[in-house]
Amino acid sequence: MKRTGFITAALIIVLILAVFAVLVLRLAEKSKAELPVYGEVPQFTFVNQDGEPFGSADMIGKVTVVDFIFTRCKSACPIMAREMSALYRVFETTDDLQFVSITVDPGHDTLAVLRDYARANGVTDDRWQFLHTDIESVVELSEKGFMLAADQLPMGHSTKFALVDRSGKIRGYFNAMDDKPMAVIRQQIVQLLKEPWEAPEAPPESM
Amino acid sequence: MKALQRLSATSAGAAFLLIFTGGLVRVSGAGLGCPDWPRCFGRWLPPTSIDQLPASVDPSLFNFTLAWIEYGNRMLGMILGLLILATAIVAIVQARNVRKVWIAAWINALLVAYIGWQGGQVVAAALEPLLVSVHMIGALLVASIALWIALQVHSLTNPSMESGSKYPKKILAWIGITWGAALLQTALGTQVRAAVKVLVEEKPLAGENVWLAAVGPIRHIHELLGIIVAGLAVHVAVKLLKRSENPSGLVVQSSWVLAGLGVFQVILGVAMIAVTFASILKLFHLWVASLMLGLLLLLYVIVKQSEKGEA
Where are the alpha helices (H) located in chain B, listed in sequence order? Predict the structure, then answer.
């Protein structure tokens, strides 16, 4: 009787813990799936390192990691490039994720310089784009579009990566200078890639 | 001695519960739920909304649910620390003559403080796998010492508990071998987990089957040793249940539970390989391993004490 009582008590405790754990795990999964929306990427069209137009329309349908950099930068940008390069490599199996680095030093970072910079960072396909435009457009996109600081460029650019979902909505900001955000961005990229998305219907063609 | 008995038993129970909640933090992905330590987003209680975050923190790091899962584990850890400290203080008062008890109690108080601080290092290193393993093994050590103290105090307050009990010859050696194999198995398990974590970071879209297949031979050693440990645990339990003379109720109950956990662990392992790598299975797989280690320690101490009584 005593033995049965002990084993029953142990089983009840295990059952309570199991139910508690299942509830906690469900809550955790649900919370991870619900990433907030911080804003929407405004319409823009710049040119990439190959001189081809690239803009917000090219971000629809793909998850995009965006940052603002300049190639002469010796402090933050090499770390940002290293982190972006790491993401570019580990997600090489999917074309549904792309990376966009926008130069904040367009006077120096010509398309040829950006092409060299891309090569130096191991870019071998069009999953990582390097964009060029005039400085006023960069400041406007950074400050008003992505809500990222752009004071006294090129030095005053943000060190954060912005994570954009398939419909062009900004879903996260991650400081590339810190290991913890760089660990979390990987999980949130996977989450956004899993998020259901339907392509917007094309407007009817005019007769 | 009553206070010491209650405190030491509660500490041991809380320590094994903390291993469960620590596992829950890991499998739920809440390890970075609070990116700083000992505070959480700079606060003594986790923020309830994004507006409460310090300006220097990325809002994307804030997840209310994950923050509270991590913080809950920290709070339970703090309660355990206080229980172990109280045990150490009361041990000095009530068990001054039993040197091994109060010395072990103070060692455990220092160890639990170290493991708590080391938890902060795990967070600072963004869950570096080796540090996570050290944290888990450290918690297991704290739980084992707490259990050992509780058993010593229990035998001091119940000196006739094992009188008349006679256990099979060489059972201590079998318990020791099983405990050693289970400890090795737990260490291998942490290595499998660490290898999977590295693979998840390197190939985040590959999926569980690919990650497990890429773990390498350590995974197969872990599977094989798992069956051996379960077999040894059942062997020890059967030997104690069938070959003992007048075994104490504690030994009988612990033997049944040990055998049950051994079989349960094999079922969990098979389910993880063949059916799903679900988080709840991973959690119980880890926790059952720690409970088996605790039960083997308990059986070893009790049988050893009965042999001393005979001598």
Answer: 2-27, 64-94, 99-124, 129-157, 171-202, 208-214, 217-243, 249-274, 279-310
How far apart are the C-alpha atoms of B258 and B300, rounded to whole Å? 13
The third-level CATH classification (topology) of the domain covering A39-194 is Glutaredoxin (3.40.30)
Closest by Cα among A13, A76, A14, A66 to A40: A66
Q: Residues of chain A whose C-beta is under 8 A from some C-beta in B?
A: 2-3, 6-7, 10, 17-18, 21-22, 24-25, 27-32, 35-36, 38, 90-91, 93-94, 160, 163, 171-175, 178-190, 193
Tokens of A37: 């929306």
| Chain A / chain B CB contacts < 8 angstroms | 99
Looking up tokens 């009790």 gives B302
CA angle A87, A89, A93 (to 5 degrees): 105
**pLDDT tens across B186-233, in order?**
999 999 989 988 898 889 998 888 888 888 899 999 999 999 999 999
**pLDDT tens digits, residue range B105-161?**
999 999 999 999 999 999 999 899 999 999 999 999 999 999 999 999 998 888 877
Q: Among A26, A179, A186, A183, which residue's Cα sits nearest to residue B24?
A: A26
What's the pLDDT score for residue A1?
46
B151 Cβ neighbours under 8 A, 6+ residues apart: B298, B301, B302
Contact status, residue B47 vs residue B62, Cβ threshold 8 Å: yes
Query: pTM of the entire structure?
Result: 0.88
For residue A67, the cross-strand partners are A101
Q: Is B206's CB within 8 Å of A93's CB? A: yes
In whole angstroms, what is the distance from residue A121 CA to residue A115 CA?
10
CA B178 to chain centre: 16
The domains of chain A are located at 39-194
Of B24, B35, B69, the CB nearest to A180: B35
- Tell me the three state secondary structure of residue A164: strand
Spell out which residues of chain A touch residue B32, defining contact as CB-CB under 8 Å: 180, 183-184
Is a pLDDT exceeding 50 seen at residue B11?
Answer: yes
Minimum CA–CA partner of A89 in chain B: B202
**DSSP 8-state symbol, A199:** P
Cα separation of B76 and B61, whole Å?
A: 23
What is the ipTM, given to two decimal places?
A: 0.90
Listed residue (A110, A130, A133) closest to A119, CA to CA: A130
Enumerate the β-bridge partners of residue A162.
A66, A173
The answer to whether A76 and A176 are in contact (CB under 8 A) is yes
